[in-house]
Specification:
heterodimer; A: MetI-like fold; two-stranded antiparallel sheet; 2 strands; B: D-Maltodextrin-Binding Protein, domain 2; nine-stranded mixed β-sheet; 15 helices; globular
């Protein structure tokens, strides 16, 4: 079949992006999948096709525990960032009338992002520590007599850091969809006698779903792929999948790291596939 | 082992790395046309002794160029084992040597060309510090220090005249404590798991060293009797991990640390009052005005040592230059520099000439300082009247219970370690 000019131009237009994606997305993933079947000695890896890496992964109780911990972190962080992110976005979109103030407040939300991720995380450590500001303040107020041990190096501190780091990823897309809601819909709801709560539940929430879903995807993938936050905030006492992978890499066990990465990738893809069943993002973009 | 980085910056490392790439891309002219000043030796290692000051001094004293690359111990092992042409001199630890030597990438050194060979301390030759001391467990330097001949592949039991590594730096590690927060004498490794310090103890999250500290504790508790702590059986590994996993579940540990800075912060902030630590970290805590002691314990120290080895591909004038470098290394200047940081030199008596009487007395002889003790870079480390924790060289190195090592069951141990962290 002869290609028409239109088709050729169409292919050419798509080519640059296709090549970029092939080189920087598809090729590395294919490579990781291939290496996950290789073997490793103490200081080298050799090409092979063996299932040892997966066999060890699936037969170890640690794997299930660690994947469980990863999902737990993702779920709790998601719930908290959603609650906070939705509230903040709602306030900015519907309570603040002037657009200038909206933009100013939005910029205020991004201020923490002017410093590095690691700094924002580590700055919690002196705050939450045994002799840290939080404990000293609580003791001086007479709320507690003994420093609270669980403030730092615990699940609490890990999730606190996650929420702090990733709430903005929830705020931005939700705020964006909320701004696009036609204000006359809210007026109509009120005219028909809906209370504030009813408007929120039956008008705003359904219309904000795509934003919530995009924010959810951001937060869930970021938390599931993280390893450094868990390491610092738990004082190396807790593990998630990212830490399993980074430990393997540190010990030059690349094939086993690759196998874990493949399993993690599949898990994240499944989670996202389930999420997308609920909302059609494309319709709303 | 990721030892503290002393005296170089990331930038200078990058520069050295870049230069190494350049040197590889533009090979030196043929040997006969070469003069000493054109020679460049490429050294890589773990960073403890990879000091820019040393490279500078080599240029001054010997005339040739020394390029240094610092890597973590896993990368060092990998590079020494797989890329023999990427370096001329490998600055590695003895347990790494045990792993790497069988690959044939290093060449044995002729001890008759080493001027100060006779003055090297006994630990690295017969294995005995003094004639009546016993060789400690683990990968003791003397057990991997010699091979049968220039092409020997297996380690010899005694001095043969062919050395694998020329020893450069070593020390004895123990637990660090906060005497002000503990308030009573600490004498044994068992204290690490004492419920009194629940939530206030820490151990390092580097499997190969952490397992040794664990073994010191378990043995001191009388829970396990090891055949060789440096080469445990699977059963011994399982038992050791079980004891520590239980302690972890009971909340004994506040955190685990992986980097030098983390260990300093844990101790300085009072989060932890007893933990595995490295000597310069103690100094760093003290320099903040916080009391911290490198506590000698009755069961002895866990020791480590490093040395320099020559690449198999080194020949001709470069090989001669490498021997010059080794002889210079042992002639005292570097030794003095390292000893003023709290490490030990392989030939202490030559280092003495490069140290003041006060410094020698404090660092080596364990005498009270007669004046302020400063590091080579000028930081104050001790006041007049202070005594080094653990005392003299013979007191410290004479009580080594175990050397850092690599086990036959290393991969099994690493998996178990991962489980311990995740449990």
């Amino acid at each position: 079949m002869r290609l028409t000019n239109r088709q050729v131009i169409g292919w050419l237009e798509a080519a640059p992006l296709t090549l970029v994606l092939l080189a920087f997305l598809i090729a590395p993933i294919v490579m990781i999948v291939i290496v996950s079947f290789w073997g490793a000695t103490e200081f080298s890896i050799y090409p092979a096709f063996q299932l040892d890496n997966y066999e060890f992964l699936f037969s170890s109780p640690v794997t299930y525990k660690v994947f469980g911990a990863t999902l737990k972190y993702a779920f709790i962080t998601w719930a908290l960032t959603l609650a906070i992110g939705f509230t903040v976005a709602y306030f900015m979109a519907f309570h603040v009338r002037s657009q200038t103030v909206q933009i100013a407040l939005f910029l205020v939300c991004t201020i923490p992002f002017w410093t590095s991720n690691i700094i924002r995380m580590i700055s919690w450590i002196p705050f939450l520590g045994r002799n840290g500001i939080a404990n000293q303040t609580l003791i001086s107020w007479g709320v507690i007599d003994q420093p609270l041990e669980w403030l730092l190096y615990s699940d609490f501190s890990v999730i606190l850091a996650f929420v702090h780091l990733y709430t903005l990823f929830m705020v931005v897309p939700i705020f964006n969809t909320m701004m696009r809601i036609d204000k006359s819909l809210l007026e109509a709801a009120r005219d028909n006698g809906a209370s504030g709560l009813q408007t929120l539940l039956h008008v705003i929430l359904p219309l904000t779903k795509p934003g919530i879903m995009i924010g959810t995807i951001f937060v869930v993938t970021l938390v599931m792929g993280d390893f450094i936050t868990v390491r610092f905030m738990s004082g190396s006492q807790r593990a998630n999948v990212g830490r399993l992978i980074s430990n393997d890499i540190g010990l030059l066990q690349y094939p086993s790291a690759a196998a874990t990465a493949v399993v993690l990738l599949c898990t994240v893809l499944i989670v996202i596939a389930i999420l997308l069943r609920f909302v059609n993002i494309r319709k709303e973009l | 082992m990721a030892k503290p980085k002393v005296g170089y910056s990331r930038r200078s490392l990058l520069r050295a790395g870049g230069a190494a790439v350049a040197a590889a891309a533009f090979p030196a002219p043929m040997l006969w046309a070469q003069e000493t000043k054109d020679i460049t030796l490429r050294q890589f290692g773990t960073g403890v002794s990879n000091l820019n000051d040393v490279a500078k001094k080599v240029k001054e004293d010997l005339g040739f160029k020394l390029e240094m690359t610092a890597l973590d111990s896993d990368s060092v092992t990998q590079r020494a084992a797989t890329q023999p042409d990427s370096f001329d001199i490998a600055d590695i630890e003895y347990w790494i040597c045990k792993k790497v030597w069988p690959t044939g990438n290093l060449q044995a050194m002729d001890t008759s060309k080493i001027a100060n060979y006779d003055k090297i301390v006994g630990i690295f030759k017969s294995g005995k510090l003094t004639p009546d001391s016993e060789i400690a467990q683990g990968t003791a330097p003397s057990t991997v220090g010699f091979v049968d001949g220039p092409d020997g592949r297996t380690f010899a039991k005694e001095e043969t005249g062919w050395m694998t590594l020329i020893p450069t730096i070593y020390n004895a590690d123990t637990l660090g404590i906060r005497p002000d927060l503990i308030g009573r004498p600490i004498e044994s490794w068992t204290e690490l798991l004492n419920p009194e310090f629940k939530g206030k103890a820490s151990i390092l999250d580097i499997s190969s060293i952490g397992i040794m500290d664990m073994a010191m504790v378990c043995e001191a508790m009388g829970e396990i009797k090891y055949g060789d702590k440096g080469n445990m059986t699977r059963e011994e590994i399982d038992k050791t991990m079980a004891i520590f996993t239980e302690a972890k579940k009971n909340g004994q540990f506040r955190a685990f640390w992986k980097t030098f800075d983390e260990s300093v912060n844990l101790m300085a902030s009072g989060e932890v009052v007893i933990q595995s630590m490295w000597s310069p970290a103690i100094t760093a805590v003290k320099s903040r005005g916080i009391p911290c002691v490198y506590q000698p314990l009755k069961e002895g120290y866990r020791s480590w040592g490093g040395g320099i080895g020559l690449s198999k591909s080194l020949t001709g004038m470069e090989l001669d230059a490498a021997y010059d470098y080794i002889n210079w290394y042992l002639s005292g200047w570097v030794g003095g520099y390292l000893m003023r940081q709290g490490y030990y030199s392989a030939v202490p008596e030559t280092s003495k000439e490069f140290m003041s009487e006060n410094e020698w007395g404090y660092w080596f002889e364990g005498k009270p300082a007669t004046g302020v003790i400063t590091s080579p870079t000028g930081d104050k480390l001790a006041d007049a009247g202070d005594v080094r924790d653990g005392g003299s060289f013979y007191e410290r190195m004479g009580h080594v219970a175990c050397w850092n090592s690599v086990m036959d069951e290393n991969q099994y141990m690493v998996r178990k370690w991962n489980e311990f962290i995740a449990s």
